Amino acid sequence: MGDGVDQHVARWSAFWQDQPAFAPEVEGALVRMKHILRWIARADATAFAAGDPDFTLQDYKTLHVLMVQPWPTEATPAQLAEAANVTRAAMTSRLDRLVAAGLVTRQGDEVDRRRVLVRPTPEGREMWNRYIFEGIARDQEALKALSEDELTQLNTLLRKVLTSLGE
Q1: Which of 49, 56, 63, 165 has the fewest beta carbons closer than 10 A?
Q2: pTM of the predicted model as reported, rounded to 2 decimal places
Q3: Rounded to an integer, what distance in angstroms lies between the CA atom of residue 87 and that of residue 144?
């Protein structure tokens, strides 16, 4: 069974037929991974566009990195920016919204007064809990074509790739 990526790879294979450096299977795998991630991003954006206009996808993503990063009770804005893959300025803007909404607090660290610590409020934890399972359902929808054994195999292969990259 073919897909649109097969057509893409076929076009590139014909164009690069004399180039041994072109690897059709690598191209196909990477393009498919990008398509899957794009599908999930669109599904997330659609879900939040139809929801509460005062709680955006960026708000959720910021709460999410706070809740799942290595220190789920607190983090610095810089740690959150890195975890969310956004600039520190963007994270400051996101945190301003969440503080104003009462979903996180920003307080100076009592041990090191130069540091600011962000912590979720009970309302922030409740808001994250409200949306996390909807996101899990969208992720599962994206991979529903695979059996449990196939998901295990996919994870084994992706883990092998990430390990080889030092991740």
Answers
A1: 165
A2: 0.78
A3: 34
